[in-house]
């Protein structure tokens, strides 16, 4: 295969542990790395092909999951963090020195407010939930990927056991739509 989806999934999925206690994420700095401590396991782990999520060099996808904000704590060198784009829904906190995103937080009124977005590959611990699906797959094209190779990408994802979606998975899209219906005051009216 001429492309790498992501090193965590190129050779198949490694199942997570149901009793995983959590662990620490580190940025890539060799000196004074930013450290984030996470209690418990992550939820909704997935591959994301969008242009905004942090990807390791050479990977087409990001691997990103959510975790309740109360389970996330910056435990070292937080002074190196800066928000990548203050206008984005997800305020991605990245290390100023190495560029790695440590956590993304939603502050505005949103269905996913209360959940932080994190990359479990930044941890040495084993047992994090394995990716469940692939999101924003067609977004690769917007970043310059050859549209003719999208069939190969989707086939590779499928062979690993990941369903491809061009936005989020149906349960997450339903959660976003439920929030929108509540906001519009139309929930249950149809
Ligand atoms: N096609 C767009 C999609 C971006 C997008 O909607 N990303 C999703 C998945 S991470 C999102 O929730 N974005 C909100 C945000 O980044 O703040 C891109 O590649 O930039
Ligand atoms: Zn760093
Ligand atoms: Zn994304």
From TrEMBL:
Pathway: One-carbon metabolism; formaldehyde degradation; formate from formaldehyde (glutathione route): step 1/3. Its cofactor is Zn(2+). It comes from the Eukaryota. Keywords: Lyase, Metal-binding, Zinc. Binds 2 Zn(2+) ions per subunit. One of its GO terms (molecular function) is zinc ion binding. It catalyses: S-(hydroxymethyl)glutathione = glutathione + formaldehyde. Catalyzes the condensation of formaldehyde and glutathione to S-hydroxymethylglutathione. NCBIfam families: formald_GSH, PRK05417.1. This is Putative glutathione-dependent formaldehyde-activating enzyme. It comes from Capronia epimyces CBS 606.96.
């Amino acid at each position: 295969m001429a492309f790498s989806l992501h090193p965590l999934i190129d050779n198949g999925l490694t199942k997570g542990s149901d009793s995983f206690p959590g662990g620490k994420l580190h940025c890539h700095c060799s000196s004074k790395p930013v450290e984030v401590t996470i209690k418990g396991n992550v939820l909704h782990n997935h591959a994301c092909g969008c242009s905004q999520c942090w990807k390791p060099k050479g990977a087409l996808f990001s691997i990103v999951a959510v975790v309740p904000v109360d389970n996330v704590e910056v435990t070292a060198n937080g002074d190196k963090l800066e928000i990548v784009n203050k206008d984005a829904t997800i305020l991605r906190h990245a290390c100023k020195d190495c560029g790695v995103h440590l956590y993304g937080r939603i502050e505005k009124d949103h269905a996913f407010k209360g959940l932080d977005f994190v990359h479990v590959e930044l941890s040495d611990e084993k047992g994090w939930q394995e990716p469940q699906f692939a999101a924003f797959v067609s977004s690769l094209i917007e970043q310059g990927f050859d549209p003719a190779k999208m069939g190969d990408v989707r086939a590779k994802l499928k062979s690993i056991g990941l369903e491809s979606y061009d936005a989020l998975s149906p349960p997450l899209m339903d959660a976003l739509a439920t929030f929108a219906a509540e906001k519009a005051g139309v929930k249950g009216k149809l």
